[in-house]
Amino acid sequence: METLQTAYAGLTLRNPLIVASSGLTNNIDKIKDLEKAGAGAVVLKSLFEEQILDQADHVLYHSADYPEAYDYVQNYVRSHRIEEYLTLIREAKASCSIPIIASINCYDNGSWVSFARDMEAAGADAIEINILKIATVLDEKPGEYEKLHTDILKAIKNAVKIPVTVKMGQRFSNIVAVVNQLKANNADGVVLFNRFYQPDIDIHKMQFTSGTVFSSSSDFSNTMRWIGIVSGQIPNLSLAASTGVHEPEAVIKALLAGASAVELCSVLYQHGNGIIMQMLTILEEWMQSQGFKTIGEFKGLLNFKNVPDQSYYERVQFMKYFSNRD
């Protein structure tokens, strides 16, 4: 009898499918539906640090012209939004048996330590840190962006006892080195990768607009590459694959590359919760056909360390494969 149970970041999941932080996980009814659909865990929709500040500015702009009121309004808005979030954690823990992972979405190392403690007290099983920032400042020193990740991680790890994971982007000169630093600073897991807002330009209206919202299956190859490279060089660290997981086969490939779990988002928006059971069924059938009883038997079997030719992961040149084509 095959079991789909997996260990991820100190948590035991009934299966490796985690619903990523998004509008899919922003209320209790949606979360209960995801559990019924078969999800192994959910990451709650995070509260953006910049949203709190923007909302405070909006309230002040529309209600009063008293600069001294800013701190009061900002603190009120922050407290109100955080209490709403903590209520969602409590409701989810009371109603669901799967792990509930809270999410902190921030861009500095300021006000989130007390928030993390409140999340833990509300019953969150783990915290996922999603750092939404790109390096755009001309005089910013090399390494400051990477240091921000470890600084935030250390501050939150020192504040809570529950597992803390980091969902990181791809904009690093050395992804493996960054993940290794996160592990050295006691990250319980790393998610590769987060997906930033995609900008576009409307050439007719001559203005910026939103680009493609959803990921696509073509994004998965890069996710799989780095899961395989990182898991092969940094053992004993839980990894979750995110961005581009759209087909059941991608789940299997991510596990073979070394992931302990995958995070689903775009595919659920596009195809509904039913895709979760489809993915689990195909994963179970594949395991049966290959003679695997547990995920641990094949996790990482084809990562960077275990493949006979590591150039499959390292290769960046592709033109020779098309040299004979007109």
TrEMBL record:
Which Pfam families does the record match to this protein? DHO_dh
Q: Which residue intervals define the domain Dihydroorotate dehydrogenase catalytic in the entry?
A: 4-286
The organism's superkingdom is given as Bacteria
Protein name per the record? Dihydroorotate dehydrogenase (Fumarate)
Which biological process terms from the Gene Ontology are attached to this UniProt entry?
A: 'de novo' pyrimidine nucleobase biosynthetic process; 'de novo' UMP biosynthetic process
Keywords from the UniProt entry: Flavoprotein, FMN, Oxidoreductase, Pyrimidine biosynthesis
Q: Does the keyword Oxidoreductase apply?
A: yes
Q: Which residues form the signal peptide?
A: none
User: One GO MF term, please?
Assistant: dihydroorotate dehydrogenase activity
Taxonomic lineage is: Bacteria, Pseudomonadati, Bacteroidota, Bacteroidia, Bacteroidales
Asked whether the keyword Flavoprotein is assigned, the reply is yes
Q: Which GO terms describe its cellular component?
A: cytoplasm
Q: Which cofactor does it need?
A: FMN
